[in-house]
Amino acid sequence: MLTKTATIILGIIQKHPVNAYELIKMLSRFQLKDWYDIADSTVYATLKSLEKKEYITGKVQKDGNMPDKTVYSLTDAGTKEWNTAIKFFLTHFDYDLIPFMIASFFAESIGVDDAIKCLEERLDYLKKNHEGLTRQIKELEMEKDIPYYVIGNVQHNALIIETEITVTQLMINKYKSKIASQ
After folding, report:
1. Which of 61, 65, 75, 106 is close enough to 11 for a disulfide, judged by CB 3.0 to 4.6 Å?
2. Mean pLDDT, consecutive 10-residue segments, the chain of 182 residues?
3. DSSP secondary structure string, 27-61?
4. Measured between alpha carbons, how far apart are the two ends of the chain, in Å?
């Protein structure tokens, strides 16, 4: 499975080939560092790792008197691995919300129908999880000598799941209305 950083980098490269400098500038322009901090050195290291795994290929280009630059493109293996990562991040829930945010950023790139399918699978999981948390809260509230912070932590998780249900449903609705308007 791809790392979060590798998924972002491959997502940008799949849109169009870029060099490392352009990639770093795009990350800044997207204000990605506001919610997921990627150091410039991590970008370079990840590019080398992706190239070694043959998910990207680099082609050296010369522009006049400017220094040589390596422009990266996705390989078929990179595209396949990236699609798998996006679908996984859209489908699966984790309390680390960054993978879902990354996948949401690129969801349309896997196709609206596939994005809807992944999101509906996520929504089913979230609803079942929320039911379980609700049951757990009721059981804990009936127990004597359960500290409030224990119940509070479970309630916190339930609220996170409620938010995820809302966001996931909104995304599904937006994608379905996009299909309907075509």
Report:
1. 106
2. 95 94 90 85 96 96 85 97 97 94 94 97 98 96 92 96 98 95 87
3. HHHTTGGGTS---HHHHHHHHHHHHHTTSEEEEEE
4. 34
Q: Which two tokens stand for residue 9?
A: 């980098």
**Integer Cα distance of 171 and 56 in angstroms:** 30
Task: Assign 3-class secondary structure to 10-22.
Answer: HHHHHHCCEEHHH
Q: Could you give the 3-state DSSP secondary structure of residue 171? A: helix
Beta-bridged to residue 58, according to DSSP, are 72
Count of beta carbons in the 10 Å neighbourhood of residue 16: 10
β-partners of residue 18 are 72
